[in-house]
Design brief:
mainly alpha; about 0% strand
Length: about 110
């Protein structure tokens, strides 16, 4: 259980850091989001990825389930976007890794 909570804490911190980078470093924004509007994506991703991961780190299984489900959904949607546009390839790799790790962390809770 402790490892699962630790992972969700790390995911929350890294997710928040990534959003800071998206809004301050155009190369990060382009490599991970392509031409997607970062404001629109942030409106959903910050509460459903960053905040729920942080809540899961404190032991909320419901938050862990929401964060994991959202991460899986984003990984699949971003992969489809990248396939159609040839953009956001780094975002796909990062979200696929986060999705796999979230599933493992959820199972540890």
């Amino acid at each position: 259980m402790r490892w699962g909570r630790a992972y969700f804490a790390l995911q929350a911190v890294l997710g928040a850091a990534w959003w800071v980078a998206v809004f301050t470093l155009p190369p990060v924004r382009h490599a991970t989001l392509g031409h997607l509007d970062p404001v629109v994506i942030a409106l959903f991703d910050v509460p459903l990825f960053v905040l729920t991961s942080g809540t899961a780190a404190f032991g909320s299984r419901i938050a862990a389930l929401i964060a994991t489900g959202w991460t899986l959904l984003v990984a699949v949607a971003l992969a489809a976007y990248a396939t159609l546009t040839s953009l956001a390839g780094l975002g796909v790799v990062l979200m696929a890794a986060a999705a796999a790790a979230s599933v493992v962390a959820l199972s540890l809770l």
